[in-house]
């Protein structure tokens, strides 16, 4: 027998779950009049406002002692360590973040299937967004938007740089629909570094009607001059790095409210922003990674201090007109607090 149940935990939104008495069959959210922040977000950017994202979510969860899975990274933390995930979101809000990112970077079905948990994708995404909403209710003193993350990530033990095999396209469409149904305010397409994969992610995100920010990941070519799409696995994957400008040109017709550079070394971010500015006419975003990655523990050492990182961000705002800033892997609430102070000083 199918059971219909309305979830009352979050009174600002109406959730319905369809189940067969035990296992989840489907869930969705009934939209409200506040569901679509496209106009307000666009207006704030058009007025020249600089908006503050959060910092690294997965690496901050790890820094607090939560083990990351070898295939799905932080994707299971929502299920195994919800209190730590909630605390990370709350701390970013208290540090001044105006946009926080739900822990959905690695919760697409095609990633979770690597550990035989593909069937839990919808519920993990719903729970991840609910934790972000709860953090907003608990800690926000001003308006805070919740972003859903959609990434290029395959299972981490895959030889692939990005997810392109099998039913990935339908997996991304399911993820996008799950995020909008769960109540995110916008979607960030993260680590876009391959035309085929990024096309699938961006098309799925844009199809929801929500604002979409596109986060490209880049690196300097061996000649130290050209900017290429990021590669980091150094495996036998035959996917080539792209000329960065050409990749942006190929993907920009798909749409997006803003685009920028993320999960890119601090020293490579400015050259990538320069190229992006030449190929993208809309608002720019930037949130770099900082530090030296230590595997297999996913720790970051030699991380830029909050003051050093804020100084870099200030340069990107001044030189390239970046309007959406934050942090990626290696950054934490202290970096976001320093960025809040920087942005406040720019407004004076």
Short overview:
The chain has 348 residues and is α/β, with parallel strands linked by helices. 39% of the residues lie in helices and 20% in strands. It has helices at residues 38-46, 58-63, 77-80, 82-95, 109-112, 121-139, 168-182, 195-206, 244-251, 266-279, 306-320, 333-346, and strands spanning 3-7, 14-19, 24-30, 51-52, 99-101, 145-151, 186-192, 212-216, 218-220, 227-229, 258-265, 284-289, 292-294, 299-301, 324-325.
Question: Any overview of this molecule?
Answer:
It is a single chain. By secondary structure, the chain is of the alpha/beta class. It folds into two domains: 32 residues, no CATH class; 311 residues, Alpha-Beta Barrel (TIM Barrel). Helices cover 39% and strands 20% of the residues. The chain is built from twelve helices and 15 strands. An eight-stranded parallel β-sheet has the order 4-15-12-11-8-7-6-5. Helix 4 packs across helix 6, helix 4 packs parallel to helix 12 and helix 9 packs across helix 10. The longest helix is centred in the middle third of the chain and has 19 residues. The radius of gyration is 19 Å and the shape is globular. The chain starts with a strand and ends with a helix.
Output the helix-strand order: EEEHEHHHEHHEHEHEEEHEHEEEHEH
Q: How does the overall form come out from the CA principal axes?
A: globular
Strand content: 15-25%
Report how far the terminal alpha carbons are from each other.
Answer: 61 Å
Structural class: alpha/beta
In terms of per-residue confidence, which ranges show pLDDT below 50 for 5 or more consecutive residues?
1-36
| Helix fraction bin | 25-40%
- For the biggest β-sheet, the strand order reads 4-15-12-11-8-7-6-5
């Amino acid at each position: 027998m199918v059971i219909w149940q309305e979830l009352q935990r979050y009174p600002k939104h109406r959730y319905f779950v369809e189940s067969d008495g035990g296992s989840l069959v489907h869930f969705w959210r009934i939209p409200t009049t506040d569901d679509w922040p496209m106009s307000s977000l666009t207006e704030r950017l058009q007025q020249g406002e600089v908006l503050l994202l959060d910092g690294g979510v997965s690496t901050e969860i790890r820094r607090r002692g939560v083990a990351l899975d070898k295939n799905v990274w932080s994707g299971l933390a929502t299920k195994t360590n919800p209190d730590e995930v909630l605390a990370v979101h709350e701390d970013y809000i208290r540090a001044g973040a105006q946009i926080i990112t739900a822990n959905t970077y690695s919760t697409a079905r095609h990633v979770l299937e690597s550990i035989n948990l593909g069937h839990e994708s919808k519920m993990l995404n719903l729970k991840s967004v609910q934790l972000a909403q709860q953090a907003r209710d608990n800690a926000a003193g001003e308006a805070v938007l919740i972003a859903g993350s959609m990434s290029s990530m395959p299972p981490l033990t895959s030889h692939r740089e990005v997810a392109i095999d099998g039913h990935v396209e339908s997996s991304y469409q399911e993820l996008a629909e799950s995020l909008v149904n769960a109540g995110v305010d916008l979607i960030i397409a993260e680590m876009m570094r391959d035309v085929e994969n990024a096309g699938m992610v961006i098309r799925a995100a844009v199809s929801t009607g929500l604002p979409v920010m596109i986060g490209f990941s880049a690196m300097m070519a061996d000649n130290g001059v050209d900017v290429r799409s990021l590669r980091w696995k150094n495996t036998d994957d035959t996917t080539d790095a792209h000329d960065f400008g050409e990749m942006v040109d190929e993907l920009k017709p798909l749409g997006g409210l803003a685009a920028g550079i993320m999960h890119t070394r601090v020293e490579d971010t400015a050259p990538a922003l320069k190229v992006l500015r030449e190929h993208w006419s809309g608002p720019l975003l930037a949130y770099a990674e900082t530090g030296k990655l230590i595997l297999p523990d996913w720790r970051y050492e030699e991380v830029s201090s909050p003051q050093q990182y804020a100084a870099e961000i200030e340069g990107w705002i001044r030189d390239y007109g970046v309007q959406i800033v934050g942090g990626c892997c290696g950054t934490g609430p202290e970096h976001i607090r320093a960025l809040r102070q920087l942005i406040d000083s720019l407004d004076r």
